[in-house]
Fold these 2 entries.
Entry 1:
Amino acid sequence: EGKVMTFRSLYHTEVINDAGLNGHARVTLGGDFDVLTSSPLQDDPGTNPEQLLGLALATCLNATIEAEEGRRGLEHAAEVKVGVDMGKDTEGYQFFLDCQVRIPQVAEAEAQEILAKCERRCPVAKIVGSSQNVRVHLVKQFAF
Amino acid sequence: EGKVMTFRSLYHTEVINDAGLNGHARVTLGGDFDVLTSSPLQDDPGTNPEQLLGLALATCLNATIEAEEGRRGLEHAAEVKVGVDMGKDTEGYQFFLDCQVRIPQVAEAEAQEILAKCERRCPVAKIVGSSQNVRVHLVKQFAF
């Protein structure tokens, strides 16, 4: 299928969901993280795929920016916020991710340059960034 | 840019990462989920983008399958496991997701039919599924 890893693996982890929407999903190899999940449409405690996906993108992109801040001798001040909306689709549901990035310690031109570079470097951005449902952009203040 | 939500939002949540790779990322609207994150290449406690992305896909796809099991009058028995590998890229890193699905209570032909339908319905699969780095497939037993 062409979907073959051609790089040496530097890290391998495995996770499982067997419960479905309401229950626990967990890491089975490479950590001991366990999360309680629930429907976003109910008021039950727990997280959901929307939040997990948003946290994956926010953390990966900001970690990538943090490394670039370091290369440039800048303090770490960047923040990444992701708003996730769920909408009904012709088949099932869709998620829409609005990823807003603040890099407040530099001028806008440099912030744009840092973000463009980090979007090309960040592994999660590489996977989700080509989707029409995902937008990544620089902001002065977060606004959803 | 064409990246505009054209559906009514049924659910909205917001998450933030301000710490970078080592620290807390958290939900700021639509829940109170907070995660400790750390580098996958260090032995520090905490989860990481690899696990968060894997958990998002595993939970979303299995919840979608669970709904389809219900429509067919089947017990919920499906399990979704995701293996995530990190490899060095020409620019930064890449993640590779091997998403393995077990639907053990039905014959293989029906299991393939359920999975194909649910890949088209699952919001996370819609976003990540077109990436060359993501493979989703039916298995009898999990093997990574």
Entry 2:
Amino acid sequence: MSEQMQRIVLASRPDGAPTADNFRLESASIPQPADGEVLVRVHYMSLDPYMRGRMDDAKSYAAPVPVGGTMEAGAVGEVIASNSPAFKPGEYAFGMFGWATHGCLKANLLRKVDPAQLPITTSLGVLGMPGFTGWFGLTEFGRPKAGETLVVAAATGPVGSMVGQVAKSLGLRAVGIAGGGDKCKLAVETFGFDACLDHRAYATAGDLREALAAECPRGIDVYYENVGGKVLAAVMPLMNPHARIPICGMISWYNAGGLGAGAADADITAPAIWRNILVKFLSVNGFIISNHFDRFPQFMTQVAPKVASGEIAYVEDIAEGLENAPAAFMSMLKGGNMGKQIVKVI
Amino acid sequence: MSEQMQRIVLASRPDGAPTADNFRLESASIPQPADGEVLVRVHYMSLDPYMRGRMDDAKSYAAPVPVGGTMEAGAVGEVIASNSPAFKPGEYAFGMFGWATHGCLKANLLRKVDPAQLPITTSLGVLGMPGFTGWFGLTEFGRPKAGETLVVAAATGPVGSMVGQVAKSLGLRAVGIAGGGDKCKLAVETFGFDACLDHRAYATAGDLREALAAECPRGIDVYYENVGGKVLAAVMPLMNPHARIPICGMISWYNAGGLGAGAADADITAPAIWRNILVKFLSVNGFIISNHFDRFPQFMTQVAPKVASGEIAYVEDIAEGLENAPAAFMSMLKGGNMGKQIVKVI
């Protein structure tokens, strides 16, 4: 009998927020690397909000995970067998191995990770897809200028904390929004935000808007959008003329029936969004980071040394054991994590 | 007793669609030009949808017309007195003279118009603010590429017809939307659209979407937005990845309570708009043409010769008499005009 691995598959599609029933832990044979392939024993895997979208079968930028298929995830681990000259056993690699203890992929789909430089977990967060998403979206579509004001929600997450730190380094005022007093403290003390508002402390979008207005006395020039919903409704009236809104996600609407398709929201209407874009000359750009990997080397060149030096901080929240990934994921969607959510698989 | 002029003032703010009560014809003394000023006898004035916005006191990119103030308009006429070396009596000038028979403005706020080149009415439409709006928004924010598909509503209006003709000249497929079979015929036969759909023939956004899908077999790459509402709802699901939406107006929402602020629309929701921008990587840009007058000389250089040669067509709908301006304006907001709406004042 061949050696066994574990993986978590999509047992059923969620109706609203995912539940434990939607996931199933399975055993399978460890695959052997075919020509050009590399087998990796996963040490850490990433949990990210985009995975919620993959659980629906709504048309999106990426194909949904099929029912019975392994949940998608980026992960990092040690090469234990290689059929490619590009990787040797004992080296470390990042790849889309999924929610699993092992993964086997073509060498050209992997990125080498050097554990002597930085902890390998950084390849999942601050120097991985989320950090890159924050850096790219802000610099490319946010067009930040010194003296301007930026707002970003989920300010202690791996995207928001990168956005805030890059904005500060460019001379902007950075105002975060986060869920809970602990996160707001972390945003200001560790990530250097000028202020951070606890959205849970404001019952309505109007209340949140009032508090934001006090923290953004010169209005808002860049709203880095990753949540939608109440925060968007609060921010919109405060946007300055010619402000920019990069959109990398809208987590508050992910559970509202197929990624928010057709779901109404009492806080803001379609005409109000459209009118704000028009009368304030806003520039609104949606993007998915996987279309922009040609910029990843530039990101690493600019940002990795600052992470190594401590100039850019990061915080990780590490759950133990693949079997606990569903619980950690469901908790993260409700904001239960503090910093980048990772699962230690080995 | 001094010589008298006529003007139309905002008698009261409209509640929804404007009515005749909202306007009042008044007499006043003809002003004398102060130092640097020029007095013009207006021959033609322009009626444009943006004027509906000026009648509300909602915060917008431009100050509202005060109750009792002269309605705003661009107009063109003959200089009858000048206190500036820049203009001589007998010359023609375009300026923001308002809904009035005469206007007196600083010379630096006027644009000279040469009646020997083209009819002076073209300074109000095809070679005026609307034509410039169409050309600028399409080329700047639409980023059109040969082989792509463009959709624009109000296709026979001065903005939409410019957008369609510029798109065609750049090698795009141009699909118009207009209200009524006559306009659709005009769009195809005079303005060269590949197809034009009568939005009145489709009861729902879904029906319109189905018809649009048939005319846009490769999807939509540029949606030049000037209407909002049902058309926006129909177009959104057909947008291709990386498509562009310049927004210069949203006439279908103008009457919905203060430029659509806070007004709901059954056809499309805020989350659906946001989700489309995200998952299709859309680039959405609002603009007002008055921020971009530095590009007007480039527009004239490129487009005026094509208007003179007949390569770019234009159609004008000319109402007679200042006193009929309110009726012509109210009719235009309902789509009653055929081509650029102008009022002959003298």
